Amino acid sequence: MRIQLHPLLLACVSIFLLSGYAHGTAPQQTYKHSYVAFQTGEEKPRTVAARFSKPKQAVLPLPTIIIVHGSGGVDARGTTYSKAFNQSGMATLEIDMWAARGLEGGLSRPKHVRDTLPDIYAAIEYLKSRQDVDSEKLGLIGFSWGGVVAMLMSGAKESQAITALVANYPVCWAYNKVPGYPFKEVAGQKQLLIVSGEEDQYDGPQDCINLVEQLPPESRANTTLKVLPNATHAFDLIQQDSTFYDPYAFRGEGGHVPLKYNQEATKLSTMLSTSFFLEHFEHSL
C-alpha cells in the first residue's frame, strides 16, 4: 500500500490550501470554463453535458482530470476540487451523468454503477479531441458513486487512457461481494488513491484496509489508502448536517447514513488528490 507523495509538491499544495484561495477569496479570472456536450458510444447514444475548466495562464496542452459526481448529482464538491486542480495547472471536465438520463439524483439513479461507465469512455474520447488537453495525462476523481466509478476504472484492462484515479469514500465493503463490483487488481500502469472517512457508516472500520491488503503485491504498490479522522461519508460536501438513506449503507444492511461537512478533512483530501495527480503526471513525462 503506497502513501508516498512528493515532499515539494505537498509543500506547494499546502501553501495553496492555507491561502485565501482555499477559502473562496481567490483572485478573479484565474481560470475559465465552458459548457460542452458529447455523445456516448452506446447503441442508443446519450448526450452528456459537462463543464470544462482550465487555468487562464498555463502551458498547453494540459493534464486533465475528469470529475465524477455522487448519487446526489453535480454539487459543490466538483467546484472545490476543480478550483484546486486548475490552480495547480490542470484542466478539469466535470460531467453530469444524471441529466443525460433524466434522473434527479439520490435514489433516483441507475441500478448499477457500470451503467454509467459509457459516460466516462465518451468523456475520454471528447478530451482526446481537444488540442489544449494532453491525452497522455488523463486522471479521474469520483465521489461515492463516482468513487465506485474510479474503482472499476482502475481495474479495467481494456482502457489505459486514464492512468491516475482518486476514489473518495467508494463503499469499500461491496467489492468482490456484490455482483458486478470486482476489485482484484489495479491494471497496467495505473495508480489509485482511495480516500475514506473514519466515521463513514457505509463501511466497517477495517473494510478499506482489508480491501487494499487483498490485492496482489504489484497492485498494492500502486494503491494509496488514506483514512481521514472525524470524517463521515461525503465529508467534503458543504451542506448542513444531514442523513441519507441508502440500501448499501451499513455494509449492505441499509440505513440512514450521517453526512457532515468537515473543513479540515476537505483541505487534506484536496491537498492529497492534487499532489497525487501532479506527482503521477510528473513521473509520466
UniProtKB/TrEMBL annotation:
Gene3D superfamilies: alpha/beta hydrolase
Upper lineage: Bacteria, Pseudomonadati, Pseudomonadota, Gammaproteobacteria, Vibrionales
MF annotations from Gene Ontology: hydrolase activity
Signal peptide start-end: 1-24
Lineage top rank: taxon: Bacteria
UniProt entry keywords in alphabetical sequence: Hydrolase, Signal
Domain Dienelactone hydrolase: 49-279
Identification of the protein by name: Dienelactone hydrolase family protein
UniProt-listed Pfam families: DLH
InterPro entries the record matches: AB_hydrolase_fold (IPR029058), Dienelactn_hydro (IPR002925), FrsA_esterase (IPR050261), Pept_S9_AS (IPR002471)
